[in-house]
Amino acid sequence: MATPSAAGSAPGDGSPGTLAHALLDTASIIRAVPDRIRVAPAEPLATRSLPAAQELLDRVTRALGLPEVEVAGEPEGLTAVELAVSRRLALRAPGAVTDGEAEQAARSALAAFPGPAVLVPARDGTPLRCWIAGPEDAPAVAVVSACGMPVGLVARWLGALSMEYRVVTWESRGLFAAAGTGLGDLADHTLDAQSEDVLAVLDGFGIAEAHALGLCGGAVVALAAAARSDRITSLSLWHGDYELGGEAPKTAHQRDVESLLAMVSRGPVQATAMHRLMSRPSTLDTLRPDIAHYLIHPYATPELLYRYGLLNGAIMSADCRGLLDAPQPALVVTSDRDTTAHPAGSKFVAARLPRAALRTMPDGDHLTAFDGGSELVALAREFLHTVTVPDRKGT
After folding, report:
1. Which of 23, 153, 282, 345 is geometrically suited to a Cys-Cys bond with 149, CB 3.0 to 4.6 A?
2. What are the tens digits of pLDDT across the range 11-31?
3. Residue 99: which residues within 8 A CB-CB, separation 6 or more?
4. What are phi and psi for residue 140, nearest 5 degrees?
5. Coil, strand, or helix at residue 215?
6. Is the dihedral of CA 11, 14, 16, 19 positive or negative?
């Protein structure tokens, strides 16, 4: 299975293949938005070119089994979500494309990393969209991503680690629709339920035990899973977003997001009002352009925003101090340049966990942790080699 070439935007070249990959990368939003999404080309197209661009888009979305997407002549009037998708698709004037070419492009995109999702039931029956890669007899790594983020955000981590490990990941319960289905009910939004999902995913793939690699709020979920079960044999916690009472300060970003989540989780009316505000194009000004189409997913509809308020609110408000007696060996990673999740939280967690080592990186911010760069992957592998057993697990 090939390693992904990028986690985020790639330049559009007008080809069916490039477009198919970009459409799959934005499929979570395209499926989630009830009305047909409109997208603007990467550069102004002559009026006569718009029908050809629409035809290409129709052929490829149909081949991928995605809802229809409408080509708009210009970006004015598009929502923040539509602009984020537009930038990822980067539509250009196409040449003539046949159904056969579109279908071949779709097959190639679907076969590329990280591949199609596998539905695994959580312990309360909630379907979880999961991915697995790597040698079947290798030690397992469960990548616990940030709440509400599409799998593409951690694709580089999956690609890098799956060369040596059996890597599994999944998307947050209740926030992602499988092809041809709606979101379904959100049966439970508590941290307990989300930490149980870690174990349910292991069950679904017949994995007895695993290292849990948690990013951002995923670090809290990984900690809670380790407290719940010794099937989590070790931890690495990257730029964790922790509630620690008065033991560590929080950034302005953490405080702002907590306030937002508290408000939108009160009910659909509040979520709808906030969604209107967040649909303004200016929302994209605060999002890293190459990954904005991932980051904006939980804000794409009022219902998603409401559910995100419940799920991520449960993570951000959970007092992690009760989880810091987990006996598993742990690597805690942060950077003093992280202005999203305060590094003091990670330092407190590392000091309290009985078997933790702290690494404060000299460079990188919160979002670069998701990029799976060579230095971070090397650090993860170095730690994983110390907590896996070669003669039993095949490393």
Report:
1. 153
2. 566 788 999 999 999 999 999
3. 59, 63
4. -95, 145
5. strand
6. positive
Strand ranges inside 216-367, DSSP E: 232-238, 330-335, 356-361
Residue of 235, 172, 229 lying closest to 28 (CA atoms): 172
Question: How much is the pLDDT for 390?
Answer: 52
Short-list 105, 112, 100, CA closest to 159: 112
Q: What's the CA angle centered on 111, arms 107 and 114, to 5 degrees?
A: 140
- Size of the chain in residues: 395
* Spatial distance between the Cα atoms of 353 and 343, rounded to a whole number of angstroms: 16
Q: How far, in Å, CA of 26 to CA of 297, rounded?
A: 9
If you write DSSP's letter for every residue of 146-162 in order, what string do you get? -TT--GGGGHHHHHHHT
Alpha-carbon distance of 254 to 216, in angstroms, equals 11
DSSP conformational letter for 319 = B
pTM beyond 0.85: the answer is yes
Q: What is the mean pLDDT of the chain?
A: 91
272-279 long-range contacts, CB within 8 A, separation 24+? 272/302, 274/305, 275/299, 275/301, 275/302, 275/305, 278/80, 278/305, 279/79, 279/80, 279/81
Whether residue 69 has pLDDT greater than 90: yes
Which residues does residue 168 pair with via DSSP β-bridges, in sequence order? Answer: 132, 142
Say which residues have a Cβ less than 8 Å from residue 269's Cβ, sequence separation at least 6: none
What the block records as the tokens of 140 is 């397992």
- Other Cβ atoms within 10 Å of 174 Cβ, number: 25
CA angle 221, 223, 225 (to 5 degrees): 70
- Measured in whole angstroms, the distance separating CA 304 from the mean position of its chain's CA atoms is 14
